[in-house]
Design goal:
It is a single chain. 35% of the residues lie in helices and 14% in strands. The protein is an alpha/beta fold and 340 residues long. It has one domain: 3-Layer(aba) Sandwich (Arginase, Chain A), CATH 3.40.800. The strands form two sheets. It has an eight-stranded parallel beta sheet with strand order 4-1-5-10-9-6-7-8, with helices on both faces. Strands 2-3 form a two-stranded antiparallel ribbon. Helix 1 (31-42) packs parallel to helix 9, helix 7 (254-271) packs parallel to helix 8 and helix 8 packs parallel to helix 9. It binds zinc ion. Zinc ion (ZN) binds at residues 194-196, 281, 283, 320. Zinc ion is lined by residues 194-196, 281, 283, 320. Keywords: Hydrolase, Metal-binding, Zinc.
């Protein structure tokens, strides 16, 4: 399996985040991608290649072009107003407020986000854009006939909606890949195994019957993103039946998780997918600092084996996972399990 590594990921390095009432060093940090690269290399899974300079025009296939343009210019507008700090939203167009894009950068940041989890630095957009190219390079490998590929980039993408950033995510790398694969004639399923519900991916494809979305995640009554990810969200219109949410409660370990993964895989088979995009988050790990599932390192081997049993071409796209020292092993284990 080839790994496509976005070396520009480190250009996105937010100084801090607000979590649990405290300003903390950002959990979504550059070391995450570096340790995964180390362990994937050690595991000799295959060549590590750089992304092709495809450009990011494909992002507009699932994102509002105005949102993409905003991300590109946001930090510049912010620095004119606030100087050399991370751009962060603080006010959102919630219930009772109008959905209107203000001129003020502070207002724009709120308009184009749904939480305060997305700081933008001077060079963040370069990392984000290279992330899209990483994902698109993975698509090219799949279309060229490779059985599998691993798009290793950060920041992650699955929380990003058509026109909002949130949850450390800016552009939705997995959704962009799925869309391009579908346009190439593939019947695509997205399997989201990140601990958090992939609300952005769900929202992008919710009324589409041609792309299937299955997600196993912390139950939104307990867990971020709280306002989407319930089991009764099954798709709408042409998408009815093409959305499968399998929320699990805090404390869930492999017995419950493996059963949910079986259900997700059964849904993917019933949909008739020929290609799978895996939103590969590893924050289901028992030692993850912001999550509450109980998966162990060896469980990720089983996760990879189960995905392989689908017998489909598979593009893994890196998402969350914040127990940094174990993140490399856990990620590699999924890929090793898949290849075994
Ligand atoms: Zn997550």
């Amino acid at each position: 399996m080839k790994t496509i590594f976005n070396a520009d990921h480190k250009l996105h390095d937010a100084a801090f985040e607000l979590i649990g009432g405290k300003m903390m060093p950002a959990f979504e940090c550059p070391r995450r991608a570096e340790i995964v690269l180390e362990k994937v290399t050690e595991a000799k899974l295959g060549p590590v290649i750089a992304p092709t300079a495809t450009g990011i025009a494909a992002a507009a296939k699932v994102h509002d072009a105005k949102f993409v343009a905003f991300l590109e210019k946001a930090w510049g507008l912010w620095s004119e107003e606030h100087g050399d700090s991370d751009a962060l939203p603080m006010t959102w167009p919630a219930r009772s407020l109008r959905q209107i894009e203000p001129d003020s950068i502070d207002g724009k940041l709120g308009f184009y986000s749904f939480d305060a989890g997305c700081g933008l630095t001077k060079t963040s957009f370069q990392a984000i854009a290279a992330g899209v190219e990483t994902s698109l390079t993975g698509v090219d490998l799949i279309l060229a006939g490779e059985t599998s590929a691993f798009a290793l980039s950060r920041p992650p993408g699955h929380h990003a909606t058509a026109d909002q950033m949130g949850g450390y995510c800016y552009l939705n790398n997995a959704a962009i890949a799925a869309q391009v694969l579908a346009e190439a004639g593939r019947r695509v399923a997205i399997l989201d195994v990140d601990y958090h519900h992939g609300n952005g991916t769900q929202a992008i494809f919710y009324e589409r019957g041609d792309i299937y979305f299955a997600s196993i995640h912390g139950h939104p009554t307990q867990e971020y993103p709280y306002f989407l990810g319930y089991a009764d969200e099954t798709g709408a219109g042409a998408g009815e039946g093409a959305n499968l949410n399998l929320p699990l409660y805090w404390g869930s370990a492999w017995d419950a998780y493996g059963a949910a993964l079986d259900k997700a895989c059964e849904g993917i088979v019933a949909f008739g997918a020929d290609t799978v995009v895996v939103s590969l988050g590893l924050d289901t790990f028992e030692e993850d600092p912001i999550s509450k599932f109980k998966l162990k390192s060896e469980d990720y081997l089983r996760m990879g084996e189960r995905i392989r049993k689908l017998g489909l071409q598979t593009l893994f796209v890196f998402e969350g996972g914040y127990a940094v020292e174990a993140l490399g092993i856990n990620t590699a284990n999924v890929l090793i399990g898949f290849e075994s």
